[in-house]
Task: structure prediction
Amino acid sequence: MNNVENKTVIITGASSGIGKATAMKLANNGANVVLAARRKDLLEEITTTINENGGTAVYKVTDVTNAHQMEELASFASEKFGKIDVLINNAGVMPLSELKNRKIHEWDLMVDVNIKGVLYGIYAVLPYMREQNNGHIINLSSIAGHIVFPGSAVYCATKSAVRSISEGLRLEESSDSNIRSTIISPGSILTELSKHITDQEQKNAINQIEESVGIEPENIAEAIYYAINQPEEVGVNEILVRPTRQQL
Ligand code: NAD
Result:
């Protein structure tokens, strides 16, 4: 069974980590992948690697916090491949800190990228998918969307919002326009995500967890592949993937 082949899949935050691993996995299985992120050099490198290995990939520099750029991304994907089958709202940031430290710019950034970015993605592709009467939107939440940790209040709030938005999307669109909605909730994954934490205490704590239990982004790419690969009448609504040794 391969329900991935020939699908047009847009992936945000595709320049590293889970987004990059997912782009490689889906392209290896015959999807036409549209990579979106802000770092042009990395997007170019990944696209070239995929195309040299017999896959099909294009990229567009996109900031998910800009609704207009997200619309341009959707229109680019549709023009290139004639349809948009899947959007993976993967771009995210996690500058953890306790509320008392009042890092208001980092709170704004998390709200802008993790919540508004996901909404802008939905905003951009929904007209195409409704017109097609078919589509699949996959949103990256987290174990942090299920449990709140000290130092993670804002991040957890954004990931919890992602779950609510995904479930609302499913309720509104699944029976109406055949659009599948999937939440992917990973545990500790070895990516760049924690490198941008400015609060040293939080950074040390996360690094310790990563060093002791962290698993590779390719493990999450497998879960995303699984969700897309199901027959069209099967909606995988949420997948939680923790490292075996991660307790919370
Ligand atoms: P990552 O930092 O490697 O990837 C995130 C990507 O998003 C990066 O390429 C980054 O440049 C991009 N990005 C950030 N802001 C952007 C913007 N405004 N516009 C476009 N792209 C932007 O980390 P990752 O772990 O691969 O993260 C992917 C997703 O998985 C995120 O949503 C993250 O919250 C989620 N997640 C990660 C973990 C983990 O442990 N790594 C756990 C749970 C959930």
In short: The two ends are 34 Å apart (CA to CA).
